[in-house]
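Tip: read the tokens left to right.
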């Protein structure tokens, strides 16, 4: 595979094609990591995909769709715990990997805030603990609730287990805020990890792979008495909902944590330049082996809370913080085989099966091979000794073969042109405009390929989609194989068919009266899902959770979305309406139109809607004066960036559009507004200034 074309040499068609391909590839990796706990790519490779995607988006803003790589945070909550909705999302940090990127981070912050190079700017630096993120809610000083990060919006209720961790107080000291949601990391020290594994070995139990897995497994025990026997620790470093902040800076907030009796990391320092940050990073890197607990980098945060509020968030991460990751670790092993996995979109993904090898304290036996071009470019062959690299907590990547150790009888790997599941042809689609072949080979047997059908059903029932507890991957595979569930509609007729059948689910191995009753109850509870979850569950290409929310908020009902999408041919007013939704663009509009005009999908939807009634999303701020209105921002805003204004409008329940149309309710125009302002005047759309917008939004002065 050739090196990627430099961004500045891409034309619009090439950019659109690569942007769409990257978005789909990242979405697939997200699904494997979050929904299946079966990742096939390293942190470093994942970050490289994201960075390329973001670079294309920055160069071609008309393609912008933050969906695929900007809104996924953490993993979906486990089914066995009750779920807690975070009052403030637990978002993740953007990563940097080099000195230059740290300097760029500081420059970006200064530029956004309008600070000159000599203006004072304080930034904290602290070790990035490699543990399990956890949120602790204190009310009137009492610990009332604890939750894992989950998917960033909803986590697992681990209150009873957290109460067994000795370092976490049940009651805060002194006079904390009435509501104080403290966030931090649950971890296990190296010494405690070694002792735990020794005990596991003595009684013949499975050993933990590393301290992080041990901490996560210990915190997720259904029986709190087991957690109580595990030596868990906690560092507090952030917060969520707080009734009154006890300090106006990051350092001050962490000092307050300590004052109230919470453990904090002693290696947090205040820096005043990129040079200071890098010096502390190197100091922490040298200390890493002797700390007694795992860290995987250093976290930088702008100290002033007022500046943090001004900086806000971009994509899934705060602009005011970054995680400087440590370099990846490498090892050599033998590639014993290449397995081709087929995803729900028909993509054929090669996965390396390796002789198990320890990399960074973790035994790994699988690695990503990306795609057939990458295998050919590196000339990776079965039987090769290969170098693998692991960065973070996911399956590593194969860097390449060690040619000096290659067997004499080795042969180049031939990527299959036939789907290994259904035997249909597997092809690389050709872009009609550029004539270039897609990097991904796909099975063409979409309607007959069991792998695509099964993966689609898994996605439909997954935690971030309809979230049907008790209908996990194994159950879906079994039910599909036995002919009980072939389409999403079959899920909702399962109970009726079971009652009418002589062979009951309760009679199957692994089932009983209680488990079957719970499954049917879980299915029944999903007959009226939120519209955004229902849209996401359909598995429309390029429509993940964020774009599903955008579509749900814009159209309000599934009927309205379907009616517009059915007539959204290229160049039509309906296509323009979808394309005009802020954050979607051409690629998503085309995918939505394709999905709803596909005859097979029509039948599947009709059958499904006989049993499911999608419900409108709750308005974010239904009482605001702009709730439900469609707003366009144009020109230069002086009090905030346009991204800040758009985010503010969405928080107030408005719909933000990219261009002015007859459906636009309001245009906010700053200096330099041009064609959009003229279009608003032509259509008679109300236009207001930035100051008037701030008053309308309740942000006067």
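Filled-in amino acids:
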């Amino acid at each position: 595979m050739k090196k990627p074309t430099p961004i500045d040499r891409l034309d619009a068609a090439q950019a659109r094609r690569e942007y769409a391909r990257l978005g789909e590839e990242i979405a697939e990796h997200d699904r494997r990591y979050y929904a299946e706990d079966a990742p096939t790519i390293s942190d470093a490779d994942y970050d490289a995909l994201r960075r390329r995607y973001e670079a294309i988006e920055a160069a071609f803003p008309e393609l912008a769709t933050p969906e695929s790589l900007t809104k996924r945070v953490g993993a979906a909550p486990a089914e066995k715990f009750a779920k807690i909705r975070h009052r403030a999302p637990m978002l993740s940090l953007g990563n940097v990997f080099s000195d230059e990127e740290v300097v760029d981070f500081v420059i970006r912050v200064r530029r956004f805030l309008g600070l000159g190079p000599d203006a004072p700017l304080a930034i904290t630096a602290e070790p990035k603990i490699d543990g399990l993120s956890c949120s602790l809610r204190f009310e009137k000083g009492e610990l009332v609730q604890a939750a894992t990060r989950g998917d960033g919006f909803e986590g697992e209720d681990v209150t009873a287990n957290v109460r067994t961790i000795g370092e976490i107080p049940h009651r805060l000291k002194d006079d904390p805020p009435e509501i104080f949601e403290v966030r931090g990391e649950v971890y296990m020290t190296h010494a405690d990890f070694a002792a735990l594994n020794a005990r596991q070995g003595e009684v013949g139990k499975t050993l933990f792979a590393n301290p992080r897995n041990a901490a996560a497994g210990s915190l997720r025990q259904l029986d709190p008495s087991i957690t109580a026997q595990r030596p868990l620790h906690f560092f507090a470093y952030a917060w969520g909902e707080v009734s009154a902040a006890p300090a106006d800076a990051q350092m001050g907030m962490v000092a307050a944590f300590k004052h109230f009796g919470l453990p904090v990391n002693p290696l947090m320092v205040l820096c005043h330049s990129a040079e200071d940050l890098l010096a502390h990073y190197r100091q922490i890197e040298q200390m890493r082996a002797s700390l007694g607990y795992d860290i995987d980098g250093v976290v930088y945060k702008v100290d002033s809370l007022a500046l943090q509020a001004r900086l806000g968030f971009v994509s899934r991460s705060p602009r005011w913080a970054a995680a400087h990751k440590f370099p990846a670790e490498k090892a050599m092993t033998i590639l014993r085989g290449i397995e081709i996995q087929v995803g729900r979109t028909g993509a054929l993904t090669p996965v390396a099966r390796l002789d198990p090898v320890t990399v960074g304290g973790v035994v790994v036996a699988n690695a990503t091979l990306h795609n057939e071009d990458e295998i050919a470019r590196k000339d990776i062959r079965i039987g090769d000794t290969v170098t693998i690299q692991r960065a973070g907590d996911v399956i590593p990547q194969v860097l390449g073969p060690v040619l000096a150790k290659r067997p004499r009888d080795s042969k180049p790997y031939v990527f299959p042109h036939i789907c290994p599941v259904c035997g249909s042809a597997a092809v690389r689609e050709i872009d009609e405009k550029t004539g270039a072949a897609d990097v991904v080979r796909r099975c063409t047997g979409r309607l007959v390929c069991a792998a695509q059908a099964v993966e689609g059903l898994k996605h439909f029932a997954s935690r971030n989609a309809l979230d049907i507890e008790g209908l996990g991957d194994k159950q879906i595979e079994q039910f599909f194989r036995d002919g009980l569930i072939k389409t999403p509609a079959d899920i909702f007729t399962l109970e009726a068919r079971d009652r009418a059948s002589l062979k009951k689910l309760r009679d199957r191995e692994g089932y009983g009266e209680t488990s079957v009753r719970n499954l049917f109850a879980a299915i029944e509870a999903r007959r009226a899902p939120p519209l955004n979850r229902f849209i996401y569950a359909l598995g429309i290409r390029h429509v993940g959770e964020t774009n599903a929310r955008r579509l749900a908020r814009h159209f309000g009902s599934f009927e309205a979305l379907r009616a517009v999408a059915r007539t959204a041919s290229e160049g039509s007013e309906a296509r323009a309406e979808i394309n005009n939704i802020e954050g979607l663009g051409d690629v998503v509009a085309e995918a939505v139109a394709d999905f709803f005009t596909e005859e097979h999908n029509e039948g599947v939807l009709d059958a499904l809607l006989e049993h499911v009634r999608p419900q409108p999303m709750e308005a974010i701020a239904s009482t605001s004066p702009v709730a439900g209105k469609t707003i366009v921002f144009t020109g230069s805003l002086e009090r905030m960036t346009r991204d800040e204004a758009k985010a503010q409008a969405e928080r107030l329940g408005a719909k933000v559009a990219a261009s002015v149309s007859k459906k636009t309710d309001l245009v906010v125009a700053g200096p330099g507004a041009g064609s959009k302002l003229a279009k608003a005047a032509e259509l008679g759309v109300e236009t207001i200034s930035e100051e008037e917008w701030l008053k309308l939004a309740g942000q006067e002065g």
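The longest helix spans residues 12-35. The chain has 26 helices and 24 strands.
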